[in-house]
Design brief:
The chain is 29% helix and 24% strand. The protein is an alpha+beta fold. Among the domains are: 190 residues, Penicillin Amidohydrolase, domain 1 (Orthogonal Bundle), CATH 1.10.439; 141 residues, Penicillin G acylase, beta-roll domain, CATH 2.30.120; 135 residues, Penicillin amidase (Acylase) alpha subunit, N-terminal domain. An 11-stranded mixed β-sheet has the order 1-33-5-6-9-10-11-12-19-20-22. Helix 10 runs antiparallel to helix 11 and helix 16 runs antiparallel to helix 17. The chain is globular. The chain starts with a strand and ends with a strand. InterPro entries: Ntn_hydrolases_N, Penicillin_amidase_A-knob, Penicillin_amidase_dom1, Penicillin_amidase_N_B-knob, S45.
């Protein structure tokens, strides 16, 4: 094997050691070496090798061009490893079931390892790859090439780097070459993120009762969080998105706002890149680190984003156990034996083994106090995403769509989105909302016939279906238009195309457009005619006010510049609704009692709230006090929700409710030693080396659209952002090609020694942006552009 840097041109910049070696390798544009030829700006592979052209633009964003998908994957794998090798390496440790070995034997690591080791033992990844390579029954050759190339590119960088500069994994034994199976296992883990992956500790905790009926299952806190959640959204993830059509934009062209809310640290960070195989694939946007295709982005004619869907991804089956045998269950009156598998993982303290149990529905799960395994009853789940091998081909097809109608056809044919909605707009000025995600086939008739009475209220309130597992008539079945059995077909999933706008902020599909509510869908997908979050309501108000020219900005309709201003306007809708009433009751009685009985003087709090500008800007004073008031449960309303006025109800503070004053007192007590009128930018920051970068935005509980969630530290404030606005993109699909703005809030690299560790974070702090650079003309106008080629020859 021969791995080479194939040259660098254009405005050399200071880079870490590997980049200096890269610059020294060659500087001739027309280089021919290692069986590779550069022709017309595109690297061409010979002898079944890999070659990719990487153009690094400002903020380190790679624009990668290759002649085939294997080489495109190589370039993506190489570039991502340059910037985030530790994140990718740790992700592979997880799916190799080795977290306990390298990161400690706490219960979460042991459960993770056992869960993933079982997937390895069951050859889950191998089974995903079996079947005709049509992109529906099994991944296509193009996608497999992309994965193969990504692996080769990552491994090539690992070989070339010699010394890793990121202290998170420098010198660590767990940073090793990866395999294609590692990548497919990581892909599967991403698919089941909101289903069996979220219930992993409940799967590991499932232990049959003893003869006397007792068992002491381990706690399953992650599974309990899933069971008690109000909907099926994965914990810790969310998003806002607008799709704007011809009647919503100043130009008449389609426009998109992408605003996913993801963790600022760890493996679920986004990574900006532009991937191109000339004539076959050309997409700019972002993907999760370690993924080879753009997941949120645009091509020349259509743009799309994702928001986390409310639909449930699994169903429960209540098993009637055979008397005297808690590992056998009755099915149509006949006994079926569970399959027991002992799974062993290695830890520093020695091997740890667990026996896990499966049924023909899927794994047995225990959530103590909610779904217990007794001598008479057990519970198994069917995970609708456990066999979803369609997603990478789906995202590839999305990137090739040329219109909303073509994108709808992709969604209908492939049904691949694991746990997200899609919001899109095209050059022709059409906007799309669709929850065409993978949803278990729980129709209204099936729910009525097969959910036992004690679980009907659970289904109505949260969409969790507990089916009678003793009858074959209660199996999930197949919709005639579904791509695979067991999931809802497109006709049973909500879709809306508009000429003005669609929007979603993680509530259900119901009010994707409030003048055309989507209704009549199975409860497993989401709720209807129920109260919307303050963030959802503000998101719609912002669009309506912009279209009417009633938001204080010039003109009517959206441009990419005023879309950016609206997105980062940092309004706190909860404050707009109740602040004045809250100040009145505060000033009328400037003393209150906390939940623990302490008496608090509210005088300073009243003054801080009166002076607050109702926003979460860096200079906003008192914003953190209102946030803590909201988190303490202070947003209590006097008026009830009205489904005929869902965007304006409830809205009146319940001024006579004593809990409001208690919540304010609790907020003041929590903020002891922090000035109540402090600037938000002084108490909400993100560390980058020795620098604390001030961060605007705020909590959804306060009704903030630009969501930022930081960890609280007594006497300090919020010194670290955990979650919130991550990749932000406002793109217009005009006649001259895509244009607009974008930023990655936490920057391109997690490596503190990278030049791209903090630059976009500072940019976000100042509400700045990087421009869309889709065309070569846009890219070559970048004064920081640096070009190099990477490749590997097989011998």
């Amino acid at each position: 094997m021969d791995t080479r840097y194939l040259g660098r041109t254009s405005r050399e910049k200071s880079r870490p050691m590997s980049f200096r070696r890269l610059a020294a390798a060659a500087t001739v544009v027309g280089l021919v070496t290692a069986g590779l030829t550069v022709t017309g700006g595109t690297a061409v592979a010979h002898d079944h090798g890999y070659s990719a052209l990487i153009q690094r633009a400002s903020y380190g964003v790679p624009h990668i061009t290759a002649r085939d998908f294997a080489s495109l994957g190589f370039g993506a794998g190489y570039a991502q490893a340059e910037d985030n090798i530790c994140l990718i390496a740790e992700r592979m440790v997880t799916v190799r079931a080795q977290r306990s070995r390298w990161f400690g034997t706490e219960a979460s690591n042991v459960s993770s390892d056992i869960f993933h080791q079982k997937a390895i033992d069951d050859q889950v990844a191998e089974r995903l790859l079996a079947g005709p390579r049509d992109g529906v029954r099994a991944p296509s050759a193009q996608v497999r090439d992309q994965i193969r190339g990504f692996v080769a590119g990552y491994n090539a960088y690992l070989l070339d780097a010699k010394t890793i500069t990121d202290p998170a994994c420098a010198g660590k034994e767990w940073v090793r070459p990866i395999s294609e199976l590692d990548m497919w296992r990581a892909y599967w883990a991403e698919m089941v993120r909101a289903s069996s992956g979220a219930l992993a500790d409940g799967i590991v905790a499932a232990t049959p009762p003893t003869a006397n009926g007792s068992n002491m299952p381990a706690r399953a806190p992650r599974a309990e969080a899933v069971v008690t959640a109000s909907d099926g959204a994965p914990a810790g993830l969310g998003s806002n998105a607008y799709g704007l059509g011809r009647d919503g934009t100043a130009s008449g062209a389609g426009m998109l706002l992408a605003n996913p809310h993801f963790p600022w640290d760890g493996a679920e960070r986004f990574y900006r890149m532009h991937l191109k195989v000339p004539g076959r694939y050309d997409v700019e946007g972002a993907a999760l680190v370690g993924d080879p295709f753009i997941q949120i982005g645009h091509n020349g004619q259509i743009a799309w984003s994702h928001t986390v869907s409310t639909a449930r991804r699994f169903v429960w089956h209540r098993l009637a156990l055979v008397p005297g045998d808690p590992t056998s269950y009755l099915y149509d009156g006949r006994a079926r034996q569970m399959t027991a598998r002992t799974v062993t993982v290695q830890t520093p303290a020695g091997p740890v083994s667990r026996t896990l149990y499966d049924t023909h529905f899927g794994p047995v799960v225990v959530v103590p106090g909610h779904f217990d395994w007794t001598t008479t009853t057990a519970y198994a789940i069917t995970d609708a995403n456990a066999t979803n091998n369609r997603a990478l081909d789906g995202w590839l097809a999305m990137g090739r769509a040329r219109s909303v109608s073509e994108l709808r056809a992709v969604l209908d044919r492939r049904q691949f989105l694991p746990w997200v909605n899609v919001i899109a707009a095209d050059r022709g000025g059409r906007a799309l909302y669709a929850d065409h995600s993978v949803v278990p086939r729980v129709t209204d008739s099936l729910a009525a016939a097969c959910i036992p009475a004690p679980f009907q209220s659970l289904y109505a309130s949260s969409g969790q279906a507990v089916l009678d597992g003793s009858r074959s008539s209660c199996e999930l079945g197949r919709d005639p238009d579904a791509v695979v059995p067991g999931i809802l077909g497109p006709a049973n999933l909500p879709t809306l195309v508009r000429g003005d706008y669609v929007t979603n902020s993680n509530d259900s599909y119901w009010l994707a457009h409030p003048e055309q509510p989507l209704e009549g869908y199975p409860r497993v997908v989401g709720d209807e005619r129920t109260q919307r979050s303050l963030r959802t309501r503000l998101g719609v108000h912002q669009v309506r006010q912009r279209l009417a020219g009633a938001d204080g900005l010039p003109g009517k309709g959206f441009t990419t510049s005023n879309l950016w201003e609206v997105m980062l306007g940092n309004r706190a809708y909860g404050g707009e609704l109740v602040r004045d009433d809250l100040v009145r009751i505060c000033e009328a009685q400037p003393a209150a009692t906390t939940s623990d009985g302490a008496t608090v003087d509210l005088t300073a709090a009243c003054a801080a709230l009166r002076g607050w500008d109702l926003r979460t800007e860096l200079d906003s004073r008192g914003a953190h006090l209102f946030t803590e008031f909201a988190l303490a449960g202070g947003l209590r309303f006097a008026d009830a929700f009205d489904p005929t006025a869902p965007l304006t109800t409830p809205s009146r503070l319940a001024v006579d409710d004593p809990g409001i004053r208690t919540a304010l007192a609790d907020a003041v007590q929590k903020l002891a030693d922090i000035p109540l009128d402090a600037r938000l930018g002084d108490v909400q920051t993100e560390p980058r080396g020795a620098e604390d970068i001030p961060i605007h935005g705020g909590r959804p509980e306060a009704g903030v659209f630009n969501m930022i969630i930081g960890g609280f530290e007594s006497g300090v404030g919020y010194p670290k952002v955990h979650h919130g606005t991550s990749f932000l993109m406002a793109v217009e699909l005009g006649g001259n090609g895509p244009s607009g703005r974008q930023v990655l809030t936490y920057s391109q690299s997690a490596n503190p020694n990278s030049p791209w560790y903090a630059d976009q974070t500072r940019l976000y702090s100042g509400k700045g942006w990087d421009t869309i650079k889709f065309t070569q003309r846009q890219l070559r106008a970048d004064p920081n552009l640096t070009t190099y080629r990477v490749g590997k020859r097989r011998r």
